[in-house]
Design brief:
With 85 residues, the chain is an all-alpha fold. Helices cover 87% and strands 0% of the residues.
Length: 85
């Protein structure tokens, strides 16, 4: 992503995050995920917890890359639709 695209992406993310925190579907999914993680973590050794945390870091990085790719594709589509250079 260009620096401008990254700034726009971050601006949109920052503005939309508070709205997500009020969305019932998002909050419900987040609660279910947190409960599942707590149950899973309770039965893990310290080494397994470390590996799980490392895995989650990589998963979060991958999701971030996917979201940025989708954002870039959206910008390309908008460029094409409105014939921007």
């Amino acid at each position: 992503m260009t620096e401008l695209q990254e700034c726009l992406y971050q601006y949109i993310s920052d503005r939309q995050y508070p709205a997500l925190q009020k969305d019932e579907e998002y909050m419900s999914a987040q609660l279910i995920r947190n409960e599942a993680e707590n149950v899973l973590s309770a039965g893990l050794t310290e080494e397994q917890k470390r590996l799980f945390s490392q895995y989650m870091d990589e998963e979060n990085h991958l999701v971030s890359l996917e979201l940025r790719h989708i954002f870039q594709e959206t910008l390309r589509i908008m460029q094409s639709l409105f014939h921007f250079p």
